[in-house]
Amino acid sequence: MQSGLLTDTFSAQRLVRMAADDWRRGSEPFLEPNLSRNLTLRDALRPVAERHGTTVSAVAVAWTIAWPGVTGAIVGARDAAQVEGWIDGGSLALTDEDLVEITEALSRTKAGSGPVEPVDGVTL
């Protein structure tokens, strides 16, 4: 969940309201231009989530599990309500079209780092 960034509720305004000593205020993913890139990626995942009747968080978990050789994803939560946001990800079957859409969003937004194509044969 990238410490909240890939949840349905995170926003730049929420970051501003966080305590001055919250570690995220100085963390690279939460500093511009990375914050805007990450939130744009999160927003690009919304249509995929809506098609599947789930959350952006669940899509992020399902995308992680879609990588060859990955059999699970470790996701943390501070309370039961947060678990409800991503629990569907373990059983969510993303389509090839979903995977291409996510890959394109990662490439377009330049959010995060590392490879962007989880499944062999999915190309842009």
Quick take:
This protein has helices at 12-17, 34-52, 56-65, 80-86, 96-109. It has 124 residues and is mainly α.
Largest sheet: none
Compute the separation of the termini in Å: 25 Å
Apparent shape: globular
Number of helices: 5
Provide the domain count.
1
Which structural class should the secondary elements be placed in? mainly alpha
Q: Total number of β-strand segments? A: 0
DSSP strand content:
under 5%
Unreliable residue stretches: none
How large, in whole angstroms, is the Cα Rg?
14 Å
Specify the helix fraction band. 40-55%
Overall mean confidence score, pLDDT:
85
Q: Secondary-structure element sequence?
A: HHHHH
Description:
With 124 residues, the chain is mostly helical. The protein has one domain. The protein is 45% helix and 0% strand. The protein is built from five helices and no strands. It has helices at residues 12-17, 34-52, 56-65, 80-86, 96-109. Helix 2 (34-52) crosses helix 3 (56-65) and helix 2 packs antiparallel against helix 5 (96-109). The longest helix has 19 residues, at 34-52. The radius of gyration is 14 Å and the shape is globular.
